[in-house]
């Protein structure tokens, strides 16, 4: 018998206000919150403090990080209604089709961008710096698919900046945490090299990535990638002037978790949101 105390909506739960958008019922919400809490265990191991990133990112800053060269299709821009639209809106005109004014900002597509941009020209010291955050992220995908692929979703990241050796250690420990947590939750994950073009597609950097991949993903049996370990080398350190004391430009790395995708993987593994929530709570009690 289920010990779940959260109440499901009568139709089983997921409301879809539009493509790539979803409202979670109480059971799915409890899963989301509980999983995010469990995933903070990696931050706790590293002593990484919790921070909150900005809700918008300057397009100029993202351009300096080659964001648009690598991910021109993903960006979701922020706009305001142009002054000539205001009278129509106040008079009850439908907003669709009224002119928007660009703000020069985008909604984040990953949690780490805002954290990295906020560290520009900083020295993280000889011992490096770790930060942890969950951000609401947005991606303009070619298609959407339930909790597997959303327009807006939550991403938990644990970010490291410091030495090359420290970045590699961060990723090794992160990968071990993913495997350990998946086992605790009854998830069967596979690890594979990802093909995200973190570096530009042409030239020596692309060839280097092919020989020495910078991203690995952990996927559920249906192919849904729910976590990744990402090695940035000293790319962000050089572009943003972030230093690691006498070591020069900081190396960085992050471990990322798509929280809604973990919810999906739990339901896939355990058959229902209620049983998945029971397993999550049992795993949390055993910690």
From TrEMBL:
Residues 42-287 form the Aminoacyl-transfer RNA synthetases class-II family profile domain. SUPFAM superfamilies: Class II aaRS and biotin synthetases. This is Aminoacyl-transfer RNA synthetases class-II family profile domain-containing protein.
